[in-house]
Structure formats: structure tokens, C-alpha cells
């Protein structure tokens, strides 16, 4: 197996036993990127010389001083600041906007500072939709079919991890910008409980929703990141591994089920059958009627928050902004402050209710996306199956394993109560082993490795 194919957990073990150096690992990843970049185009900025310089310095770090992510390659979405004294091709934060062309922040985002201290190897900045706010695709293609979108807005990070060009990735989510690319690219995607990880130093769209998202090809790797970001539940962790046999799961279609396609519908049906075959109890549930307006509440607050976030750009360079963002600032839908408050307060009232519902189960299983990644790069796809959970602040994990009618990956979302992030990861690991083994989709054959 080539070094670029290894998970973070495997790479760390290889560093520890001396069978792999950070320099050789970095060379393997850069070779993979060189081979695949023309097709996938995941990178906004990448400086191979800087990557190799980091790798050599990390190899020189004494064993006792090495961090928990020593040498592990991370892709960083280009709405997250990386400190400007570093080489420009890494440090630029342009947000896929001509307004910020050449912009170089003077500080690391909080997430980057934490990863840097943990010893991470930063590969570069990955593509995003404009300000991580539109559905207009950047240049990036889906690694499993270059004619299809990788999703967005975390397009490049999802595609880079999905194509084995990066081991871990940072994204963000305001609607479905982490979970949707996770599904489309066939990888694990984790949106933690809202504000469980600092968002300082990333471009804000909607402060009430924005959440740092994490990408990996295994739950073990997500757990490494959860440790580094100090994610802890109140309850002590259950004895590992989580036992699917005897556990109780909920299958939830949600109020946006009419938008579902054949691939996701089949994945939901197969997931329920697999869990039952492995000894789990599976209930089909529906949310109470007061949740029906969640998509509408999310939309109102998104526009209201966008009015605030994009006012500086509007006042200084509105002609360079996408019309969707201009519409936020100009309140094109004429949402009133009373509607905004009603949406805020209604979502706040629903959050403890969803905690209670989700707390009855090991996890709620629900669609990540309407279907497999659609053809074309013009749109990154619908976030409607994700946005309700973003608004409710619950942790969610996209678990891969299924495929659509065209052989493209489809994942399903596991949901837990707020601040049950570690529990949800433990459940996702056991469920993921079943879905990946028996769901019908094979990552390696899809990528030809």
C-alpha cells in the first residue's frame, strides 16, 4: 500500500515504528496530487516546497516532543485563516472572492493554531464556493466522476480527502457544506455540536449556524481530531467498541423527504435491513408537527445573518459579489425582524426537544443528500437534508457505504443529541463498519487504487 493511501491512524503507527518518515509520506501525497490534480482540481493554493520544508522539520522533532497529529497531512478550506508570514500560497485566504484576491491574514484561525501545535502537516488551501455561501461550484470535480460535483461549499477538502490527496480535511458548515461533500465523495464527515470547536479566524456567514467540519476516511481518524479539539461528553465513554446488537436506532425521513431520489431511498431501506440483520432494533419515526417549519426557520435566519456578515463587502465592493449575497444584504425576500425573532426563538425551543428524541436511540439515521452527486459543476447540490440539523445544533456524521444508480457514493447521516459528540462517533464507527462492508460501494475500485 502506498503511503498516500494510509489513514491518519496508520500513518502515526508507521512513524512510530520507523517504517515511514514524514518526508516520504509527504512525497507520496504530493505525487498523488500531481497525478490527479488536473482531473480533481481540489486545491486553491499549494506550495510543494513549503510542504517538504515542514516535513523535514517534523522529522527532526525529538520523539518526546511530537504532538498527537505529528506529520499528519491536513487540507484547509480557503475560508479559514492561515498565518500570513508563512509562504503566500498557503497563507492566502481569498474565500473564492475577487474582493480578497491576494489577501494574507496575519494570524492562524483557532482551529489551525490547535492543529499546528499538535504537529499537523499543512498541505495547502482547498477550494470553496464564494464565501462558503453560494451553491455555485468552484473548479473542483468529484474524484469518482469528473463530470459530477464534489458538493460544497467545502468542495476541495471533501474531494482531496475522497481522492486520497489529503489524509484529513477541514471544512465548514452553515447548511450542508460538510456533510454533503462527505456523501458525494464517499468519506466520513463530522459536523460537531455547534460551537464545540472555536470558529475564530474563519469567514463568518451565519454565526448562529457556522460550524467547523472535519473530514477523514475512518472514524478512528475523526476520533484523533476530536481528542485534539478537546471534544468531551458529560457521560464517560461506553466500553468500546459500541455494540450494534441490541442497540436501538431511529430511521427518520424528515419533512423534506419528498425531495429524495432513488439512491438515497434505497440506502435508507438497506441501512435498516443491515442493522436489523446485525441484531439492532430499528424504529421508523417522524418528528412532531412543530418541527415542520425548520427549513423555513433556517432560511430566514440564514438571510438575516447574511445581511450582517456581508455588509462590509457590499458597502465596499458590491459589484464583485454574487447576486445571491447581494440579495442577503438588500433583504430581497423582505423578511421582517418579527419573522427573524420568531425563527430564532422557535429553533431554540426545538433544540431540547430534539435532544430528548435523539436521546432515546443510539442514533437517528437520516438522509445526508437527496441522491448521488448530480452531473455538472455549476451547482454543488441541495443542502435541504442537512440544514435542519445545522439549525438544531446537533452533532452529525456522514457514514459512507452505499451507492446510487450510477455507482456514485451515497452516505447516510447519524444524528445525536447536542454535546454527545463522542458517543455519536463511537456509534458511527460500528455502524460504518457494517455499511462499508455490506452497503455495496467500494472506494478503492472507484478510484482505481
TrEMBL record:
GO terms for molecular function: catalytic activity. Residues 135-158 are annotated as: Disordered. InterPro entries: Amidase (IPR000120), Amidase_dom (IPR023631), AS_sf (IPR036928). Pfam families: Amidase (PF01425). Residues 29-425 form the Amidase domain. This is Amidase domain-containing protein. It comes from Apiospora kogelbergensis.
Amino acid at each position: 500500500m502506498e503511503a498516500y493511501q494510509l489513514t491518519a491512524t496508520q500513518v502515526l503507527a508507521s512513524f512510530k515504528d520507523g517504517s515511514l518518515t514524514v518526508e516520504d509520506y509527504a512525497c507520496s501525497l504530493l505525487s498523488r496530487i500531481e497525478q490527479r490534480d488536473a482531473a480533481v482540481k481540489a486545491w486553491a493554493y499549494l506550495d510543494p516546497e513549503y510542504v517538504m520544508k515542514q516535513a523535514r522539520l517534523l522529522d527532526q522533532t525529538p520523539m518526546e516532543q511530537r504532538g498527537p497529529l505529528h506529520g499528519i497531512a491536513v487540507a484547509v478550506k480557503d475560508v479559514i485563516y492561515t498565518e500570513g508570514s508563512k509562504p503566500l500560497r498557503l497563507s492566502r485566504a481569498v474565500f473564492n472572492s475577487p474582493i480578497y484576491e491576494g489577501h494574507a491574514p496575519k494570524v492562524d484561525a483557532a482551529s489551525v493554531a490547535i492543529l499546528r501545535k499538535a504537529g499537523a502537516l499543512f498541505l495547502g488551501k482547498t477550494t470553496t464556493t464564494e464565501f462558503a455561501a453560494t451553491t455555485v461550484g468552484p473548479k473542483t470535480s468529484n474524484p469518482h466522476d469528473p463530470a459530477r460535483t464534489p458538493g460544497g461549499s467545502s468542495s476541495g477538502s471533501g474531494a482531496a480527502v475522497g481522492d486520497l490527496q489529503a489524509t484529513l480535511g477541514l471544512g465548514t458548515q452553515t447548511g450542508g457544506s460538510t456533510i454533503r461533500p462527505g456523501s458525494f465523495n464517499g468519506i466520513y464527515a463530522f459536523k460537531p455540536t455547534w460551537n464545540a470547536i472555536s470558529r475564530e479566524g474563519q469567514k463568518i456567514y451565519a454565526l448562529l449556524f457556522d460550524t467547523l467540519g472535519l473530514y477523514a476516511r475512518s472514524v478512528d481518524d475523526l476520533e484523533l481530531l476530536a481528542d485534539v479539539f478537546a471534544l468531551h461528553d458529560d457521560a464517560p465513554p461506553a466500553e468500546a467498541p459500541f455494540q450494534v446488537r441490541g442497540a436501538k436506532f431511529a430511521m427518520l425521513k424528515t419533512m423534506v423527504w419528498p425531495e429524495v431520489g432513488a439512491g438515497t431511498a434505497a440506502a435508507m431501506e438497506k441501512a435498516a435491513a443491515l442493522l436489523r440483520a446485525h441484531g439492532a432494533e430499528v424504529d421508523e419515526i417522524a418528528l412532531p408537527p412543530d418541527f415542520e417549519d425548520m427549513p423555513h426557520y433556517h432560511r430566514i435566519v440564514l438571510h438575516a445573518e447574511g445581511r450582517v456578515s456581508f455588509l462590509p463587502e457590499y458597502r465596499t465592493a458590491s459589484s464583485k459579489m454574487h447576486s445571491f449575497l447581494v440579495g442577503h444584504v438588500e433583504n430581497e425576500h423582505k423578511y421582517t425582524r418579527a419573522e427573524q425573532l420568531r425563527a430564532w426563538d422557535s429553533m431554540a425551543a426545538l433544540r431540547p426537544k430534539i435532544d430528548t428524541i435523539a436521546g432515546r436511540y443510539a442514533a437517528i439515521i437520516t438522509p445526508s443528500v437527496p441522491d448521488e452527486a448530480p452531473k455538472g459543476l455549476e451547482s454543488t447540490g441541495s443542502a435541504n437534508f442537512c440544514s435542519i440539523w445545522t439549525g438544531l445544533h446537533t452533532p452529525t456524521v456522514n457514514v459512507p457505504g452505499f451507492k446510487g444508480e450510477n455507482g456514485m457514493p451515497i452516505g447516510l447521516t447519524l444524528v445525536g443529541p447536542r454535546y454527545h459528540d463522542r458517543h455519536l462517533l463511537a456509534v458511527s464507527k460500528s455502524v460504518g463498519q457494517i455499511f462499508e462492508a455490506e452497503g455495496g460501494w467500494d472506494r478503492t475500485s472507484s478510484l482505481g487504487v
